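Dear Dr. H.,

I hope your travels went smoothly. While you were away I took the liberty of generating a structure for the chain from your last submission, since the lab meeting agenda had it listed for discussion. I wanted you to have the full record in hand beforehand rather than looking at slides cold. The sequence, exactly as received, is reproduced here:
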Amino acid sequence: MSADQPTTAAPGLWQRFRQWLPDRVDARVRVAAWISLVLEIAIVGTGGAVRLTDSGLGCEWPLCTPDSLFPTAEQSYHSLIEFGNRGLSFFVGLAAVAVIVFVSQIRRQRRDLWTMAWIIFGGVLLQAAVGGILVIFDLHPNLVSFHYIVSLVLVGVSAAFVARMGQPVGPRERAVPRWLAIVTHITSFVLAVTVLIGVLTTGAGPHSGDPEVTLRNGFDATLLEHIHSWPAYAMFALTLVLVIGASVVGSTRFRSWAIALLAVELVQIGVGLYQARNDLPPLAVGVHMVLAAIAVAVMTAVVMHVKRPVATDA
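The corresponding predicted structure, in token form, is as follows:
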């Protein structure tokens, strides 16, 4: 090689890593997004387990004991359940970071995905802070309710990310008639009302998260159980309209998600009736909580399929 011939330095580790990152929505983005969504739903289940097994104060904060981050042999199984939920939150955060990293190279083209990825990560940080405050304030029912609602919001945003990542950027148009789109948004609003009343019902019920915590939100749990069923049945009726309407207009993808929503609601209604007639057994309440998160995810998918990318010539 002659002295005046230019040489090209090998790229450094950071440059190689950036070159390895996706330049489009590929399998890595899709897998990370699905893992993030599944973990967001799973932590609703483990959080419910903490509350329903009276393990809410099984660990102190920020350590599990004054001298140990992890549960000790002297502690009961409650500390293991509480710490297990904290451990899962680490992986929820790790998945959120992975999604941000994988979409970082396409953040200008896919600003929608970039924004949702950061919302999810910010929500995970908020949840970690709220979880610590919960322990400090002895599982105040209003804080517990807020903790659960934030989890459902994160499930919804994660589901929206999954729904949008497979669609191209650009203008969008309605995929269903205007009246069906309006009914869809009304259904999503009724779901939000159903969840809110359900959260208040749980905050008034017997499951406080610890035997020594007697503070509840002050509402009549029996009355709220009946009120909670009203929007739930209204949502079921509206979902039937969505399924029938989508079948009439021939919107296949929209109809598929509407049918999935209807199936989740049928199971949710069955579990709700069982738990109400059997003095709220913990396992049934936990299943009810997880099904609510799944309903939020599927409802989000239904809403996201109200519109589709505008068809363009090749």
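Two observations you may find useful: The chain has a mean pLDDT of 91. The beta strands are 172-174, 307-309.

With kind regards,
E. W.
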